[in-house]
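Mods, move this if it's the wrong board.
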Amino acid sequence: MLAVLFTATACFEPDSKDEPDPPVPTVPAESVHRSVLVYMVADNSLGSWNNDQADLREMRTAAKAGDLNGGRLIVYHNRPGTDSGKAPLLLEVTATGIDILKTYPDDPGIYSVDPDRMREVITDMKSYAPADDYGLVLWSHASGWMETSMARSFGEDRRQTMKISSLASALRDSEFSFIYFDCCSMASVEVMWELRHAAPVIVASGIELPADGMPYQLTMPYLFAPGKADMVGAASTTFNFYDSITGSSRTCAMTVVDTEALQALAEASADIFSGVTEFAPGLSSVQPYFRSAVRTYMYDFEDYVERLDPDPAQLEAWRAALSDAVIYKASTPALFNIVDLDRYCGLGSYVILDPREIAAFNYNEREWYRDVVSRSPLLRLEN
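Not the wrong board. C-alpha cells:
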C-alpha cells in the first residue's frame, strides 16, 4: 500500500469521529490481481445480532492465513446506528488488522441502498484498490425479485430497501467478474435475468439462509484464487458447511449461474410460454422455496415448466439451456426442517395461477415478465 493512503488501523467497531478520514489517493496505488468489495448493509437486524462483526472477524482470520493471495479485501460497512452518528466506513481487511480508508458523510438522510451511494462506493473501491479483476459480495437481507413497500429486493438500511431494477442500474458497467449474494432468496430466474449484464458469474441462494451467511474464513481462498475466481468452490464450500450441521440448522441451497447462458434459457422459456393458453393442473403444488412465515413467492423453475406441459422437444431444449446456465446447484433436504426441498433446479420462479396476479409485487415490471412470460396470451397483462 502506498504511503499516500495514510490508513488508520481500526478495531471491529471503529469510531469514525476519532479517526482521520484519509483522502482518496491522488497517486494511483499499485494494481493487484484482484480486489473484492463486500458491500455490507448492516443497519438492520443482522447488525443488531452482530453478524457483521462476526463476518469481519472471519475475514481477518482468512487474511491472517494468507488466503487473500496478494489481493485486497475492501468492505463498505453500513454500521448499525447511522442515525446516532455511526457513519458508514470503507474498510480494508489485511493480515495485520482492519484499516479505515474513508468515512462517508454523517448524513442520516443518505441510505446505503441508494444506487448513487453504491456507485460512489464502487468508484472509491477502485480508486483505493485498483486491480486487474474485481469481485463483489452483496451482504444484507434480501427477498428476490419483489418490489413493494412491504418487500425488499436487496438490502435493508433503516427500513429502506433497494429494488432489483435499481440494483441492476447501480451495477451497470461496474466490471465485476463475479457477484456473490451473501443474503437470502436471490437465485430466481427473474433476478438473474435483470442482472444478466452485471457480471458473468453470479452466486446466490434460492431460499432463506441462516443469519451467519457465508463462512468467510473458508471461502476467501476461492474468491481470491489465481486466474479466475473459483465461484463453484466458494458456493460448494458454503453449502458443505451448512450441510454438515445436524437438526434444523442444516439448511442451505446454493446456485452458481453463468449469465452469458441466460439468453438461450430465456429463448427456450419464451418458446414454452408462448404456448400456454390455459392453466395446467398441478400448478398450485409446484415445489416452493419459501416457508409461510417469510413469503418470497419463489418456486422451483423446472417443476413449474414441466407442469406447463410443453412439447417434449421443447422441454428437452429447455433443460439443456437450464443446464448450461446453472453450473452448480445443491440443497439440503429441507428448509429449517419446515419445508421439504424435494426439488431444487437452482433457480426459483414466480408462478402465476390467475391473470390478476401478474401485477402482484410489480411482477409486470420485471424484464423476465416482459421478455418471456408475457409471450403467453393467458399471462399477458393488457393495457
